[in-house]
Design brief:
Elements: H1 15-21, H2 27-39, H3 44-58
Helix pairs in contact: 2-3
């Protein structure tokens, strides 16, 4: 039987997403995550993040929204195609500005 964690897929989350997601948790939920982390991956950065948030709550901070929406580190748009094409320069007598292995990068006016 798998344990139910306050954050789904907790073990796969990047640290930046985790930081966003734990803002909405209560102290008891954070303690559950600390225990889970110590028993499984025991990642120092994750434990530090969780313990820092626990200290904030104990010092009077309150849980805020941060929960289950789209993680902050995932782009909202898909990949687009590039306008760049692998075509050669328009004029064969003028190399590209950065030059090629056989040319220095100077145009015909610099010869």
């Amino acid at each position: 039987m798998t344990e139910q964690l306050p954050i789904p897929e907790f073990d796969e989350l990047p640290l930046t997403t985790m930081q966003h997601r734990i803002r909405s948790l209560e102290e008891e939920q954070l303690n559950t995550l600390v225990e889970h982390e110590r028993a499984h991956a025991d990642r120092p950065q994750v434990l530090e993040l969780l313990n820092t948030r626990l200290e904030e709550l104990r010092a009077g901070a309150t849980p805020t929204e941060g929960g289950e929406g789209k993680p902050a580190d995932q782009p909202e748009h898909g990949r687009g195609g590039s306008d760049v094409t692998p075509k050669a320069p328009r004029s064969s007598d003028r190399p590209t500005m950065h030059g090629t292995s056989s040319r220095s990068g100077y145009g015909i006016e610099h010869r």
